[in-house]
Amino acid sequence: MNDSVPETEIPAEAPEAYDPAAPAALDVPRTPTGNAEVDAQLDRLGDADHLATDGHLEVYEDVHRGLRDALTALDARPGPPAPPPSYAQAPSPAYRHRS
Fold first, then answer.
1. I want to staple 37 with a disulfide (CB 3.0 to 4.6 A). Which of 9, 26, 62, 70 is the partner?
2. How confident is the model at residue 23, as a pLDDT?
3. Between the CA of residue 51 and those of 1, 28, 42, 57, 65, what are the distances in Å?
């Protein structure tokens, strides 16, 4: 009598079939701009790499909104200080009317 355990064959995993609708990284290089807000939005584009095509629109719209807000914020930044208001001069005594 043989006490050894019979070898069982482990089925080989079938290679995954190519699915064109499956998420695939585009690996598009994103060069930092130096502006933290803009760079964060550009990095957000990488989130689309992990989504099916029908999920890309939401990411693109979110990034577009963020970039638009960053541009709007540039317009809202304070510019150079406004010139001081001209001071009102008291009328000269020669022009005062006496009653």
1. 70
2. 72
3. 57, 15, 16, 10, 19
Structure tokens given for 25: 């990284």
* Cα–Cα distance for residue pair 43/64, rounded to 1 Å: 12
pLDDT at 3: 64
d(CA 25, CA 8): 38
How confident is the model over 64-98, as pLDDT tens digits?
999 999 999 888 767 777 777 776 555 666 666 66
Q: Whole-model pTM?
A: 0.52
Neighbours of 17 (CB within 10 A): 6
Rama region for 27: left / alpha / beta (φ>0; ψ in -120 to 50; rest):
left
Alpha-carbon distance 45 to 56, whole Å? 9
Residue 37: closest CA among 6, 1, 73: 73
